[in-house]
Amino acid sequence: MESQCGPRGAGETAGPAGRDVRWVYQPVEVDLGDGTWALGRISGWWQDAAGRQWCRLRVGRSGQPACWQRFDPARVLLLPVSGL
């Protein structure tokens, strides 16, 4: 999954401008890649100039701050916010 958490290298796109972000509270489950899943939260959505969807994702108990990552529905499962 492409990420923009750390320093940007040459040729990487800049992050979203504040006006382009749709701020949300969206609980998710994240595939950690080793057969385990963890709860997390998406706090913002953004679409880049190429039409790719990005989310500001934080994985619970990871100790890492939230960062922008390209949204991958195979790896990040959206959970209901309310009701079933």
Helix count equals 0
Radius of gyration (Å):
13 Å
Sum up the overall morphology in one term: globular
What portion of residues is helical? Answer: under 10%
Number of separate structural domains:
1
Overview of this structure, please?
0% of the residues lie in helices and 42% in strands. About 10% of the residues have low confidence. The chain contains no helices and five strands. It has one domain: Roll (SH3 type barrels). It has 84 residues and is an all-beta fold.
Brief summary of the model shown:
The chain has 84 residues and is mainly β. The chain has strands at residues 22-31, 37-47, 53-59, 67-70, 76-78.
Fill in the keyword field for this structure.
globular, mainly beta, SH3 type barrels, five-stranded antiparallel β-sheet
Task: Spell out the blueprint of helices and strands.
Layout: E1 22-31, E2 37-47, E3 53-59, E4 67-70, E5 76-78
Antiparallel strand pairs: 1-2, 1-5, 2-3, 3-4
